Amino acid sequence: MSKRWVAALAVGVMATVAAVAPAAAQMFPTRPVTVVVPFAAGGPTDVMARILGQRMSRTLGQSVVVENVTGAGGTIGVTRVSRSPADGYTLLVGHLGTQVANMALYRTVTYDADRDFEPIGTIGTNPQILVVRRTLEATTYADFITWLRANRERASFGSAGVGSMAHVAAILFFSQVTGTGGQHIPYRGTGPAMNDLVAGQFDFMFDQSVNAVPQIQAGTIKPLAITTARRFAVVPDVPTFAEVGLPVFELGVWNSLFAPRNTPQPVLERLHAAYLEAMADEAVSKRLADLGADVPTPDQRTREALRQRVRADMERWIPIIRAAGATVE
Fold first, then answer.
1. What angle separates helix 44-60 from helix 265-280, to the nearest 10 degrees?
2. Which residue has the higher pLDDT, 160 or 305?
3. Is the pLDDT at 20 greater than 60, yes or no?
4. pTM value?
5. Could you tell me which CATH class the domain 32-126+254-323 is placed in?
Protein backbone atom coordinates (compact mmCIF):
# COMPACT_ATOMS: atom_id res chain seq x y z
CA MET A 1 0.00 0.00 0.00
CA SER A 2 1.60 3.27 -1.12
CA LYS A 3 1.99 6.27 1.17
CA ARG A 4 0.07 8.35 -1.37
CA TRP A 5 -2.86 5.90 -1.26
CA VAL A 6 -2.86 5.87 2.56
CA ALA A 7 -2.86 9.67 2.66
CA ALA A 8 -5.75 9.80 0.21
CA LEU A 9 -7.67 7.28 2.31
CA ALA A 10 -7.11 9.32 5.49
CA VAL A 11 -8.37 12.47 3.79
CA GLY A 12 -11.42 10.57 2.60
CA VAL A 13 -12.20 9.29 6.11
CA MET A 14 -11.83 12.76 7.59
CA ALA A 15 -14.15 14.20 4.96
CA THR A 16 -16.71 11.50 5.70
CA VAL A 17 -16.57 12.18 9.44
CA ALA A 18 -16.93 15.90 8.80
CA ALA A 19 -20.00 15.25 6.67
CA VAL A 20 -21.55 12.80 9.13
CA ALA A 21 -21.27 15.11 12.20
CA PRO A 22 -23.67 17.80 10.92
CA ALA A 23 -26.00 15.11 9.65
CA ALA A 24 -26.02 13.47 13.10
CA ALA A 25 -26.88 16.81 14.67
CA GLN A 26 -29.75 17.28 12.24
CA MET A 27 -31.09 13.83 13.11
CA PHE A 28 -30.78 14.41 16.88
CA PRO A 29 -32.94 13.67 18.77
CA THR A 30 -34.65 10.55 17.49
CA ARG A 31 -36.19 9.68 20.86
CA PRO A 32 -37.26 11.52 24.05
CA VAL A 33 -34.69 13.55 25.98
CA THR A 34 -34.54 13.16 29.77
CA VAL A 35 -33.80 16.15 31.96
CA VAL A 36 -32.77 15.14 35.47
CA VAL A 37 -33.83 17.50 38.25
CA PRO A 38 -31.90 16.56 41.41
CA PHE A 39 -34.71 17.75 43.69
CA ALA A 40 -38.33 16.91 44.40
CA ALA A 41 -41.20 17.75 42.07
CA GLY A 42 -42.88 21.07 42.71
CA GLY A 43 -39.77 22.98 43.79
CA PRO A 44 -38.25 25.91 41.90
CA THR A 45 -35.69 23.89 39.95
CA ASP A 46 -38.38 21.42 38.92
CA VAL A 47 -40.82 24.15 37.87
CA MET A 48 -38.22 25.98 35.77
CA ALA A 49 -37.01 22.75 34.16
CA ARG A 50 -40.55 21.87 33.10
CA ILE A 51 -41.22 25.31 31.63
CA LEU A 52 -38.02 25.13 29.57
CA GLY A 53 -38.40 21.47 28.63
CA GLN A 54 -41.94 21.88 27.39
CA ARG A 55 -40.90 24.65 25.00
CA MET A 56 -37.68 22.92 23.88
CA SER A 57 -39.66 19.82 22.92
CA ARG A 58 -41.43 21.84 20.23
CA THR A 59 -38.11 22.73 18.61
CA LEU A 60 -36.51 19.32 19.03
CA GLY A 61 -39.54 17.41 17.80
CA GLN A 62 -39.28 14.96 20.69
CA SER A 63 -40.63 14.91 24.24
CA VAL A 64 -38.42 16.41 26.94
CA VAL A 65 -39.16 14.36 30.05
CA VAL A 66 -38.29 15.69 33.51
CA GLU A 67 -37.15 13.04 35.99
CA ASN A 68 -36.74 13.91 39.67
CA VAL A 69 -33.75 12.13 41.25
CA THR A 70 -33.57 13.38 44.82
CA GLY A 71 -31.24 13.09 47.79
CA ALA A 72 -27.98 14.28 49.34
CA GLY A 73 -28.29 17.94 48.42
CA GLY A 74 -28.78 17.06 44.77
CA THR A 75 -25.55 15.08 44.49
CA ILE A 76 -27.31 11.80 43.63
CA GLY A 77 -29.03 13.22 40.58
CA VAL A 78 -25.99 15.20 39.46
CA THR A 79 -23.74 12.16 39.77
CA ARG A 80 -26.15 10.12 37.70
CA VAL A 81 -26.00 12.61 34.84
CA SER A 82 -22.22 12.90 35.04
CA ARG A 83 -22.01 9.12 34.49
CA SER A 84 -24.64 8.96 31.75
CA PRO A 85 -23.77 8.39 28.08
CA ALA A 86 -22.60 11.64 26.50
CA ASP A 87 -25.14 11.53 23.68
CA GLY A 88 -27.46 14.43 24.54
CA TYR A 89 -30.31 12.24 25.74
CA THR A 90 -29.68 12.75 29.45
CA LEU A 91 -29.33 16.34 30.67
CA LEU A 92 -29.22 18.10 34.03
CA VAL A 93 -30.82 21.20 35.45
CA GLY A 94 -28.37 22.12 38.19
CA HIS A 95 -27.98 25.29 40.19
CA LEU A 96 -25.66 27.29 42.41
CA GLY A 97 -25.96 24.62 45.10
CA THR A 98 -25.30 21.50 43.05
CA GLN A 99 -22.62 23.00 40.82
CA VAL A 100 -20.84 25.28 43.32
CA ALA A 101 -21.79 25.02 47.00
CA ASN A 102 -21.56 21.23 47.11
CA MET A 103 -17.90 21.48 46.14
CA ALA A 104 -17.31 23.09 49.55
CA LEU A 105 -19.99 21.40 51.64
CA TYR A 106 -19.14 17.76 50.99
CA ARG A 107 -15.78 16.28 51.88
CA THR A 108 -16.20 13.77 49.08
CA VAL A 109 -18.09 14.72 45.94
CA THR A 110 -18.49 12.15 43.17
CA TYR A 111 -18.41 14.70 40.35
CA ASP A 112 -16.49 17.80 39.31
CA ALA A 113 -18.99 20.49 38.34
CA ASP A 114 -16.52 22.32 36.11
CA ARG A 115 -14.87 19.32 34.46
CA ASP A 116 -17.74 16.82 34.14
CA PHE A 117 -20.40 18.97 32.46
CA GLU A 118 -20.91 20.96 29.29
CA PRO A 119 -22.92 24.17 29.78
CA ILE A 120 -25.98 24.75 27.62
CA GLY A 121 -27.69 27.79 29.14
CA THR A 122 -29.18 29.53 32.17
CA ILE A 123 -32.95 29.44 32.64
CA GLY A 124 -33.22 32.06 35.37
CA THR A 125 -31.86 33.30 38.68
CA ASN A 126 -33.91 33.29 41.85
CA PRO A 127 -33.09 35.40 44.89
CA GLN A 128 -33.59 33.77 48.27
CA ILE A 129 -36.36 35.16 50.45
CA LEU A 130 -36.51 34.78 54.23
CA VAL A 131 -40.09 33.71 54.94
CA VAL A 132 -41.90 32.72 58.14
CA ARG A 133 -45.10 30.90 58.94
CA ARG A 134 -48.18 33.09 58.81
CA THR A 135 -48.95 32.63 62.52
CA LEU A 136 -45.50 33.72 63.76
CA GLU A 137 -45.88 36.85 65.89
CA ALA A 138 -42.96 38.60 64.16
CA THR A 139 -44.05 40.78 61.25
CA THR A 140 -40.75 42.55 60.45
CA TYR A 141 -37.13 41.46 60.20
CA ALA A 142 -36.28 43.26 63.44
CA ASP A 143 -39.18 41.56 65.21
CA PHE A 144 -38.00 38.21 63.88
CA ILE A 145 -34.43 38.64 65.16
CA THR A 146 -35.80 39.54 68.60
CA TRP A 147 -38.08 36.49 68.52
CA LEU A 148 -35.27 34.22 67.26
CA ARG A 149 -32.90 35.22 70.03
CA ALA A 150 -35.60 34.66 72.63
CA ASN A 151 -36.59 31.27 71.19
CA ARG A 152 -33.29 29.81 70.06
CA GLU A 153 -33.98 26.53 71.85
CA ARG A 154 -37.28 25.83 70.11
CA ALA A 155 -37.09 27.78 66.84
CA SER A 156 -37.15 25.54 63.75
CA PHE A 157 -36.34 26.09 60.10
CA GLY A 158 -36.87 23.98 57.01
CA SER A 159 -34.84 23.45 53.86
CA ALA A 160 -34.75 21.44 50.66
CA GLY A 161 -32.32 19.09 52.38
CA VAL A 162 -28.94 18.99 54.06
CA GLY A 163 -26.54 20.92 51.86
CA SER A 164 -29.25 22.57 49.78
CA MET A 165 -29.02 26.28 49.01
CA ALA A 166 -31.85 26.90 51.47
CA HIS A 167 -29.69 25.22 54.12
CA VAL A 168 -26.56 27.10 53.02
CA ALA A 169 -28.42 30.42 53.11
CA ALA A 170 -29.54 29.69 56.67
CA ILE A 171 -26.00 28.78 57.74
CA LEU A 172 -24.57 31.96 56.23
CA PHE A 173 -27.39 33.97 57.80
CA PHE A 174 -26.75 32.55 61.26
CA SER A 175 -23.01 33.15 60.92
CA GLN A 176 -23.72 36.86 60.42
CA VAL A 177 -26.45 37.22 63.07
CA THR A 178 -24.75 36.54 66.41
CA GLY A 179 -24.53 32.84 65.66
CA THR A 180 -28.18 32.37 66.58
CA GLY A 181 -29.54 29.19 65.03
CA GLY A 182 -32.46 26.85 65.23
CA GLN A 183 -33.50 23.24 64.74
CA HIS A 184 -32.96 22.23 61.12
CA ILE A 185 -35.71 20.17 59.46
CA PRO A 186 -34.45 18.93 56.07
CA TYR A 187 -36.84 17.83 53.33
CA ARG A 188 -36.30 16.22 49.93
CA GLY A 189 -36.96 19.46 48.08
CA THR A 190 -38.33 22.94 48.71
CA GLY A 191 -41.78 21.97 47.45
CA PRO A 192 -42.48 19.64 50.40
CA ALA A 193 -40.77 22.07 52.77
CA MET A 194 -42.95 24.95 51.61
CA ASN A 195 -46.08 22.84 52.06
CA ASP A 196 -45.18 22.28 55.71
CA LEU A 197 -44.27 25.93 56.28
CA VAL A 198 -47.69 26.92 54.96
CA ALA A 199 -49.18 24.35 57.34
CA GLY A 200 -47.22 25.88 60.24
CA GLN A 201 -45.11 22.76 60.90
CA PHE A 202 -41.95 24.85 61.42
CA ASP A 203 -41.13 28.53 61.85
CA PHE A 204 -39.10 29.86 58.94
CA MET A 205 -36.96 29.08 55.91
CA PHE A 206 -35.01 30.57 53.05
CA ASP A 207 -36.51 29.76 49.68
CA GLN A 208 -36.01 30.67 46.04
CA SER A 209 -38.38 33.31 44.72
CA VAL A 210 -40.02 31.00 42.17
CA ASN A 211 -41.25 28.82 45.02
CA ALA A 212 -41.92 31.54 47.59
CA VAL A 213 -43.55 34.34 45.57
CA PRO A 214 -46.84 32.52 44.80
CA GLN A 215 -47.30 31.75 48.51
CA ILE A 216 -46.41 35.32 49.48
CA GLN A 217 -48.93 36.67 47.01
CA ALA A 218 -51.53 34.26 48.37
CA GLY A 219 -50.85 35.41 51.93
CA THR A 220 -50.06 31.92 53.22
CA ILE A 221 -46.58 32.92 54.50
CA LYS A 222 -44.89 36.17 55.52
CA PRO A 223 -41.75 37.53 53.79
CA LEU A 224 -39.19 39.46 55.84
CA ALA A 225 -36.20 40.14 53.57
CA ILE A 226 -34.79 39.27 50.14
CA THR A 227 -31.21 38.58 49.02
CA THR A 228 -31.04 41.11 46.16
CA ALA A 229 -29.12 44.36 45.77
CA ARG A 230 -32.39 46.25 45.21
CA ARG A 231 -36.05 45.49 45.81
CA PHE A 232 -37.59 42.84 43.57
CA ALA A 233 -40.37 43.92 41.20
CA VAL A 234 -42.74 41.02 41.89
CA VAL A 235 -42.59 41.58 45.69
CA PRO A 236 -41.78 45.31 45.95
CA ASP A 237 -42.79 45.59 49.61
CA VAL A 238 -40.14 43.09 50.77
CA PRO A 239 -36.96 44.90 51.94
CA THR A 240 -33.50 43.78 50.93
CA PHE A 241 -31.11 42.43 53.54
CA ALA A 242 -29.00 45.54 53.03
CA GLU A 243 -31.99 47.63 54.10
CA VAL A 244 -32.41 45.62 57.29
CA GLY A 245 -28.73 45.62 58.20
CA LEU A 246 -26.90 42.83 56.32
CA PRO A 247 -25.30 44.60 53.35
CA VAL A 248 -23.20 41.63 52.17
CA PHE A 249 -26.06 39.12 52.14
CA GLU A 250 -26.81 38.90 48.40
CA LEU A 251 -27.53 35.42 47.08
CA GLY A 252 -29.13 34.61 43.74
CA VAL A 253 -29.62 30.94 42.84
CA TRP A 254 -29.29 30.40 39.10
CA ASN A 255 -30.81 27.30 37.51
CA SER A 256 -29.10 26.12 34.33
CA LEU A 257 -29.09 23.32 31.77
CA PHE A 258 -26.03 21.07 31.41
CA ALA A 259 -24.99 18.01 29.41
CA PRO A 260 -22.39 15.38 30.35
CA ARG A 261 -18.77 16.02 29.39
CA ASN A 262 -17.77 14.84 25.90
CA THR A 263 -21.24 15.30 24.43
CA PRO A 264 -20.58 15.83 20.70
CA GLN A 265 -20.33 19.47 19.68
CA PRO A 266 -23.06 19.23 17.01
CA VAL A 267 -25.47 17.82 19.60
CA LEU A 268 -24.59 20.58 22.07
CA GLU A 269 -25.22 23.16 19.36
CA ARG A 270 -28.60 21.60 18.58
CA LEU A 271 -29.57 21.64 22.26
CA HIS A 272 -28.34 25.20 22.68
CA ALA A 273 -30.33 26.34 19.65
CA ALA A 274 -33.48 24.77 21.15
CA TYR A 275 -32.72 26.46 24.46
CA LEU A 276 -32.27 29.84 22.75
CA GLU A 277 -35.54 29.49 20.90
CA ALA A 278 -37.32 28.66 24.16
CA MET A 279 -35.81 31.62 26.00
CA ALA A 280 -36.71 33.96 23.12
CA ASP A 281 -40.36 32.94 23.45
CA GLU A 282 -42.14 35.79 25.24
CA ALA A 283 -44.60 33.37 26.82
CA VAL A 284 -41.70 31.48 28.45
CA SER A 285 -39.86 34.57 29.70
CA LYS A 286 -43.09 36.10 31.02
CA ARG A 287 -44.03 32.93 32.85
CA LEU A 288 -40.59 32.74 34.48
CA ALA A 289 -40.64 36.43 35.41
CA ASP A 290 -44.17 36.22 36.82
CA LEU A 291 -43.03 33.37 39.06
CA GLY A 292 -40.24 35.54 40.44
CA ALA A 293 -37.22 34.55 38.34
CA ASP A 294 -34.70 37.00 36.93
CA VAL A 295 -34.62 35.95 33.25
CA PRO A 296 -31.16 36.10 31.60
CA THR A 297 -30.61 38.74 28.95
CA PRO A 298 -29.54 37.58 25.46
CA ASP A 299 -25.83 38.14 26.19
CA GLN A 300 -26.18 35.95 29.30
CA ARG A 301 -27.57 33.01 27.31
CA THR A 302 -24.34 31.85 25.69
CA ARG A 303 -22.69 28.60 26.69
CA GLU A 304 -19.48 30.45 27.56
CA ALA A 305 -21.36 32.91 29.79
CA LEU A 306 -22.66 29.98 31.86
CA ARG A 307 -19.22 28.37 32.01
CA GLN A 308 -17.70 31.60 33.32
CA ARG A 309 -20.54 32.07 35.79
CA VAL A 310 -19.95 28.66 37.35
CA ARG A 311 -16.23 29.36 37.70
CA ALA A 312 -16.74 32.87 39.09
CA ASP A 313 -19.21 31.60 41.69
CA MET A 314 -16.78 28.87 42.70
CA GLU A 315 -14.16 31.52 43.37
CA ARG A 316 -16.65 33.61 45.33
CA TRP A 317 -18.73 31.15 47.33
CA ILE A 318 -16.46 28.21 48.15
CA PRO A 319 -14.20 30.31 50.46
CA ILE A 320 -17.26 31.93 52.09
CA ILE A 321 -18.93 28.59 52.78
CA ARG A 322 -15.73 27.09 54.15
CA ALA A 323 -15.11 30.15 56.33
CA ALA A 324 -18.59 29.71 57.81
CA GLY A 325 -17.62 26.15 58.79
CA ALA A 326 -20.45 24.59 56.79
CA THR A 327 -19.88 20.91 56.02
CA VAL A 328 -22.04 17.90 55.23
CA GLU A 329 -21.01 14.35 56.05
1. 110
2. 305
3. no
4. 0.84
5. alpha beta
Range 127-244: architecture per CATH = 3-Layer(aba) Sandwich (3.40)
Separation CA 48–CA 288 (nearest Å) = 7
DSSP states of 133-184 as a string? ETT-S--SHHHHHHHHHHTTTT-EEEESSTTSHHHHHHHHHHHHTTT---EE
How deeply is 265 buried, as exposed, middle or buried, from its count of CB atoms within 10 A (0-12, 13-18, 19+)? exposed
Contact 46, 189 (CB under 8 A): yes
End-to-end CA distance of the chain: 62
Q: Considering only CA atoms, which of 151, 158, 172 is closest in space to residue 241?
A: 172
Give domain limits for the chain.
32-126+254-323, 127-244
Are 111 and 238 a contacting pair, CB within 8 Å? no
- Tens-digit pLDDT profile for residues 71-127: 888 999 999 999 999 999 999 999 999 999 999 988 889 999 999 999 999 999 999
Q: Cα dist. 40→187, 192, 193, 256 in Å?
A: 9, 8, 10, 16
Short-list 306, 240, 261, 298, CA closest to 100: 306
- Distance CA(151)–CA(148), nearest Å, equals 5
**CA–CA distance, 93 with 238 (Å, rounded to integer):** 28
* pLDDT more than 90, % of the chain: 68
Encode pLDDT of 48-77 as tens digits.
999 999 999 999 999 999 999 998 889 999
How many angstroms separate the CA atoms of 187 and 190, rounded?
A: 7
Dihedral angle computed from the Cα positions of residues 199, 203, 209 and 215, in that order, rounded to the nearest 10 degrees: 30
